[in-house]
């Protein structure tokens, strides 16, 4: 039994989230295929691949004979808005040392002030002649101090954050010039030399339950780790009878997905093709399988805000509404009437709560990775998530019951036999 609170707490960055996902998969008997290794897969097998430490694709192989060869994809992302530490980051100002950072993604930056923060990410180290990556999170805490109201009487009227000048965390009192390198150096073994890093300033606060019955959970990185870990848990739990079940965790969604490990890469298509070829399928059989396949793009939705309900559409979704199916006229989401209907039929079959989400028509609608990833492999797809509050804040809120419903939904999806019938899809 996994604890989503611990997973949210310790998945500081995409690297940490992938590591946590890998540990869940290994405990469930999944076999790792190393980068650059030949795909040796067979019916009944469970496997995963990791791409550049921050993206992961896991899959199970059922009966792939004839038209039973098809894919069921669930795609989500493991990155979240935060701050990336610059090189030569230490900024000495009087008796203070601060760290120079730049924004990663579009966060609600005022929520980052006066909060417990940590440094986390990936260190690049040299061991002899070998350069390799190493996971890192600081034991030390840091903070970005607010300006006292006595020094800014207008702060409660309008607080605009300048990322260059306002969000540099307080690092130390009168440190040596190599303070940051010294901190990172404490994470190295005797045979390791630090040569570079991908380092982020992230929330280090523990998730906490709230509400009269503890029904809510407030935590960092709810968007989109609740989708990522529910899909991993579902893949592990599901009975895989036919076809190939695939769980893809991408990096870089918050910055547009256009990286080697993002949904805009060929990672998903490449992995799906290699599975097919390893199973002795031809390219024609692969493309035919794709036409019989179905994808779920999993990313959270905006729940109606208790104090700003007027900013939601008329058909509001609330925390506690279960699985949210996301629609948009200009197709910022992949959902259409047919794919939504197929997925609703599956949810109804298993008694799983669900609701429809539309953005207010006079507000811009954010996108997600589904429309990006399916540019590489075109299959029928639906966008889903759970409702949450304070998206892109340093502390976001969701209902624990919705997480349970999401796991049930994705487990049912992986466990069903979707068969292409003339004019439609049969749910076995």
How does this model look, in words?
With 428 residues, the protein is an alpha/beta fold. It folds into two domains: 4-80 and 220-427, Zn peptidases (Aminopeptidase), CATH 3.40.630; 83-203, Aminopeptidase i, Domain 2. Helices cover 23% and strands 30% of the residues. The chain contains nine helices and 21 strands. It has helices at residues 4-10, 14-27, 179-185, 222-237, 267-278, 283-291, 337-349, 370-373, 400-415, and strands at 31-32, 46-51, 55-61, 71-77, 82-93, 96-104, 117-127, 130-137, 170-173, 193-203, 208-210, 216-219, 244-250, 294-298, 301-302, 323-327, 354-358, 380-389, 396-399, 418-421, 424-427. The strands form three sheets. Strands 1, 2, 3, 4, 11, 12, 13, 14, 15, 16, 17, 18 and 19 form a 13-stranded mixed β-sheet that branches. Strands 8-7-10-5-6-9 form a six-stranded antiparallel β-sheet. A hairpin with a 2-residue loop joins strand 7 and strand 8 (130-137). Helix 2 (14-27) packs parallel to helix 4 (222-237) and helix 4 (222-237) packs across helix 9 (400-415). The protein is globular, with a radius of gyration of 22 Å. It starts with a helix and ends with a strand. The mean pLDDT is 92.
The CATH C-level class name of the largest domain: Alpha Beta
Distance between the termini: 28 Å
Estimated radius of gyration: 22 Å
The percentage of residues in β strands lies in 25-35%
| Overall pLDDT | 92
Class derived from helix and strand content: alpha/beta
What sequence of helices (H) and strands (E) makes up the elements? HHEEEEEEEEEHEEEHEHHEEEHEHEEHEE
CATH topology of the largest domain: Aminopeptidase
Helix content: 10-25%
Q: How many helical elements?
A: 9
CATH superfamily of the largest domain: Zn peptidases
